Each structure stands twice: as C-alpha cells, then as structure tokens.
Amino acid sequence: MELSHLNPNTDSNRPQSPTVSVVIPTLNEERNLPHVFAKLPAMITEVIVVDGGSKDRTVEVARRLRPDAVIVQQTRKGKGNALACGFAACTGDIIVMIDADGSTDPAEIPLFVNKLINGDHFVKGSRFSHGGHSHDITRLRKLGNDGLNLVVNVLFRTHFTDLCYGYNAFWRAVVPALDLPDVKLPRPSDGRKLWGDGFEIETMINIRAVAEKLKVGEVGSTEHERIHGESNLNTFRDGFRVLRTIFSEYGRMRRRRGAGLRPFVEGLQVGPARGLNPVPPRHAADPRRDGGHLNRARRTDDINKIRARELDDLGGRPTQDINKLRSGPSAD
C-alpha cells in the first residue's frame, strides 16, 4: 500500500537517466569528507557542500577532493537551514540528502534513484525494514523511534518504518511542497532558530511529503557509526522536539485542509522536456531561486545509465532484501 492516493500514469515520461545532485551539510567535517566523497557513485552529477561556518579545513578539503563541488554558506544556523540552502542551489533532476559524518552510505544512492525513476516522488531510507540495519542506534533511541513512528502512522495513516532517519531523495520539482523557511530571512535577534531550521527538518519534510499526497517509498539503508568527531544528538531533547514537530505538522495539515488548500500533488504535472514540473500558482515562493554559490565549476555531462529495477513501495508488496539488490540483478 502506498503512502499517497496518487496513481499517476507518467512513468514513461520520467527521465530514465536523470541528473542527480547530492546535498551534504557540513560543520567541521574535514576528516570525514575523504571517506564520504570516496563512496559517491559515478552517477552523481553535482555535489553541493553546505558549510555552517566550519573552523577547520572542511571547505578546502571539499574543493581538493571534488574541484567541481558547489560550496554554499548557509544563511542561518541549524541543519534545516543548511538543507534548505543546499536544495536552493541544486540544478539536478533528483536531490539526495546525506550526512557528512559517514553515517549514511553514499553507495546506496542508486537504490533511491531507481525507486524514483520507477514512479515515486519522494524516497526515504529505512534502517529497520527492506534489509536495512543500524550500527549506531541504541536500544533507548530505537524504542523512541518506534513510538514516534506509531504516532505518525496513526495520525497521518502512513506506514513509515523509520521516521527519524535523514537519508532521503526526491525529485527537485517537489521541493516547493516541503515549504521550507525562506533562506533569505534574517536570523532571529534573540539567537533562536526559525521553525524548520533545526534537526526537526527531517521529520518535517517526511510528514509534509505525505501530507501533500506525494508518492512516498522506502528503501533499506545501513547506518554506520560516525567516523570522526562527536554527534550533537540528544535522545530526550531531540525526541521531544520530534514529537512537537509531529503534532505541529498535524495541526498544519488540518488547517490547510480546512482552508480548502489542495494537496501539492494535484498541481504536479509532467513537463515536456524532462522530469516533473509543479504548476506555479500552488507555491509561488520556490526556494530554488535564492541559492548563493561560492564556487560552481562545470558539471559532468555524462551519467551512468541507472538500472531500472522496481523496488517495493512503502508498505506494499513483500520487501526485497537490500543485500540482493547490492549484489546485482537476479534472474527473473
């Protein structure tokens, strides 16, 4: 069963060799970037490194490892703002968001892209289904994640298996559906973050994708331990922040429905050239217009052809083992 009620017959119109942008928020990650960049698949056509004011050599290392990388300085503080700035800078058909600490595996990106090509609008990784696994999560955090999954699945009638994992990919055309805070807004004078600028961003965009009736799927993903440095996650603080986000987004959805606003997906159409195009009147403020770059070199024009292999929709047919997918196509 899909997360959305959409049943588009547009798969043949989707680009079969889409360009792919990967967004990597960074803050003092110079020692981790060599490991992350080394695992980026050849299919990536654009790397967006969003720096949050690193005090080390993060930007220098990124440029040395990937001279064609686009370096963007985020406009406020927080992971949410970093991602919004990164999305605004992307030019690829597909956007993939990964972490710079080595916890998300870039080698899994083709799994996400395959699923998008086969019909999904938004694909999220799962550590707890479809053959996924985590080498980092504690029992307490797993218990909290299960509880938060349950709340979202009941309120939004979804079938998430891993709400709090931030490894996602989606068509660039659906960015307006996420309705992220404008990257040009000033930082609050009292030092607080704007709603959506913090770690709540991952829960927020997952929920907004389903609230806007996008076709959402999952693929299995293996989470690794951070390679260098320490995580800023706090089990109780961040757990309550996610819970607050869930109820806030539920209220937002009900208000929008009560005001007669139609889901974003109803304004989504297939463009004449490539990919998906939103109908402008639905979301006039497209954050992609406001991307500022420090460095944009020539993008690679060639892209490896992506193996068109359908993966299971979230909550749909019996799940496939991710290890089989990684080992190559099997005989059908």
List keywords for this structure.
9 helices; 332 residues; Spore Coat Polysaccharide Biosynthesis Protein SpsA, Chain A; disordered N terminus; alpha/beta
Description:
By secondary structure, the protein is α/β, with parallel strands linked by helices. It has a single domain, classed as Alpha-Beta Complex (Spore Coat Polysaccharide Biosynthesis Protein SpsA, Chain A). Helix content is 29%, strand content 14%. The strands form 3 sheets. The protein has a 7-stranded mixed β-sheet with strand order 3-2-1-4-7-5-8, with helices on both faces. A two-stranded parallel sheet has the order 6-9. α7 runs parallel beside α8 (235-258). The longest helix has 24 residues, at 235-258. Residues 1-12, 270-274 and 279-326 have low confidence and may be disordered.
Please, how many helices? 9
Task: Give the total of beta strands.
Answer: 11
Superfamily (CATH H level) name: Spore Coat Polysaccharide Biosynthesis Protein SpsA, Chain A
Secondary-structure arrangement, i.e. CATH architecture? Alpha-Beta Complex
Radius of gyration: 19 Å
Strand content: 5-15%
Order of helices and strands: EHEHEHEHEEHEHHEEHEEH
Work out the helicity level: 25-40%
Question: How confident is the prediction overall: mean pLDDT?
Answer: 80
Give the tally of structural domains.
1
Mind describing the biggest β-sheet? 7 strands, mixed
Uncertain spans: 1-12, 270-274, 279-326
Name the CATH class.
Alpha Beta
